[in-house]
Amino acid sequence: MQYRSTSFTSSVILVVFLPCLFGCTSTCWKRIDQVVKNPGLTVEIEQWTFDGKPEDAGFSHPVSLDQGALQAVFGDLKYVYPRLLQKASHEPVILPDNIEELSRAVAEGLKQCGPAQRLRFTVKNTHVKLKVIPLGRTTRGVVFMKPEGTLNLVFDLIDDSPDPEYPDDFLYSDWGDPTRRSLSTFHLIPPAGAGLYRSPGGGVRHQWIVVPVDQEKPAPATLKKE
Question: What does pTM read for this prediction?
Answer without folding.
Answer: 0.80
